[in-house]
DNA sequence: GATGAATGAGCCTTCATTCAT
DNA sequence: AATGAATGAAGGCTCATTCAT
């Protein structure tokens, strides 16, 4: 990598730098704590610089929401796209439950991102749907394989995955669960949707 | 009623007035939209008056969160405290799923309240736990009656109630479910925790 | 005057206070020099206080323009509303020429006010027209009395009053004229519109 | 043309380019609308480049004012430098009255330029005086020829030319005058200074 | 106890200017 | 000479909070 492209990459990264700093602040102090001045400090740039990359605070927030959705989807769906339906479902479920273990205190959770201003706009809901489509696909595949009950996917997701989300939230709030307990929970979820 | 208690009641009413106005504004415009000035207007009092009842905005928000938790608990647990375990569980589950249908546009949902600043403080988590204790009690009773699987209550709640919460959230986002579909979901939840 | 109304008047005056301070700053440093912070300091109030009286800087400027137009009209038309047409015209003409002598360095001139942002809006042009109507009336009366040439008033104003405005501007820029010279100018103007 | 002068000319062109762009922006959006960034864009150069030619915004504005004064003088004095005094005066007067008809929406008027920040500095007033000297000369010549009244030139200018300026301003504000009316005005001005 | 005018710190954003390339 | 990303002071404005009445 020559010097020029090195610099270029640094500059491109400035956008990322800002976004990461924003995430960090919100994770630490909530959205109320995010001021452009503080963000500039945390990102190590001047206040005005932020506006070279984002039209305004709203646009920055919007991109942050997108970023987090994608990151969450990546973690949730890790290694859950190949193998048998059972393997994929198991992978997905545990990824969800153990989600918090992978995030540092600098990272926003999916739940937090969902409640940033503007995260409920139609545009974002669409993004959510398409980002998490692979998750739904696992259940669709299970239904088509005659393995899962023949029910609307949303119901299957709510029944089998939502409990994992709830457990993850409880863990994030500090509640502890043994592997044994979590395994039991997994079994309940798994069997509840099996034909 | 003597003068003192009359005045006391007036004060209490004014406090309620303020809290209701705050809820209304947040439900309508989000927490960002809640300014003390606007709140005073909506509540029909002077700005300074709010500070007779609340030390500051944070204290007001905290009390609002408590209020909403209690209200939600009331709705969720409506008619779910007597009858057989099955009756109580059924009542609870459907109360959750149909929660949104009972709230007006002036009311904050449980989810929204959960994400107000400070709602995740240890103090509030404790309150949550005690407020929703009756819900846990239904499952505890079921376990003790030998009807539900003998598992830690949190797991049972996550498995059987969390799906209802997820469905309610989806409905609030505009997703539609038929009674048939919801009944199916109920059956899955119910059977998944039965011994 | 009791204490209450004294206070009330002080408060009402705060608006005037702000307007006067704004005029003073603009006269001294130009419109570019008018920042809300500086204005607050000069007016002896807090920055936020200005916004109790004016929605924004634009509204404040607009009212300032109106104020100055009215003030200028008052000075220009002083004692020019009674007497013969000749007396009234003479009064008007000299009021214009000596306008600058009456203004302190804290006051905006008519010319400066005319070039504040927004001063050319249709709304202000209308105000201008009605405010200076009494000036036009003097010429109208002269025409109807058969004393002035029977020409459109605008032409008469331009021919007889505009020179006075020009002389006033020159004096404001530091040029000196003797009474003799000014009297000669007056005669030229006066005779040019006489029948 | 050697390389040096070629480059010199390029620079000069770029300077002109910047100045023209600045005039265009101010004419369109007012002085408030002139930002160095926007200017760079409109002029087709980089923001930093402007600072090769002008020390700062103030210097640029100053030169713009000068440029416009010269341009205005050019238009005003067009064809007014030869012929009899009467011919020259007539030419001058009509050039002034019809000034607006010759300017495009990209050009600043004399009035606008007069009210740019700094346009009232002593330095500019001197420039004004020397730039418009040929105009004064017409009247001086008329006086020396025994044609005009033997009065200080400033008075003559104020009496005979200022009305034309006033009419031009009214036209720029949208007021309409017939050729007949303007001719009448011309006659008044002309005769008012004739011996 | 209630009022609401006043406060001023802090917010988001702009923009003249610099400087490494 | 030219670029344009970066700077950061300053701008207009909001709003939680105070306090004289």
Automatic annotation (TrEMBL), chains A, B, C, D:
<keyword id="KW-0238">DNA-binding</keyword>
<dbReference type="InterPro" id="IPR050109">
    <property type="entry name" value="HTH-type_TetR-like_transc_reg"/>
</dbReference>
<protein>
    <submittedName>
        <fullName>TetR family transcriptional regulator</fullName>
    </submittedName>
</protein>
<dbReference type="InterPro" id="IPR054422">
    <property type="entry name" value="TetR-like_HI_0893_C"/>
</dbReference>
<dbReference type="InterPro" id="IPR009057">
    <property type="entry name" value="Homeodomain-like_sf"/>
</dbReference>
<dbReference type="InterPro" id="IPR001647">
    <property type="entry name" value="HTH_TetR"/>
</dbReference>
<dbReference type="GO" id="GO:0003700">
    <property type="term" value="F:DNA-binding transcription factor activity"/>
</dbReference>
<feature type="DNA-binding region" description="H-T-H motif">
    <location>
        <begin position="35"/>
        <end position="54"/>
    </location>
</feature>
<dbReference type="Pfam" id="PF00440">
    <property type="entry name" value="TetR_N"/>
</dbReference>
<feature type="domain" description="HTH tetR-type">
    <location>
        <begin position="12"/>
        <end position="72"/>
    </location>
</feature>
<dbReference type="Pfam" id="PF22604">
    <property type="entry name" value="TetR_HI_0893_C"/>
</dbReference>
<dbReference type="GO" id="GO:0000976">
    <property type="term" value="F:transcription cis-regulatory region binding"/>
</dbReference>
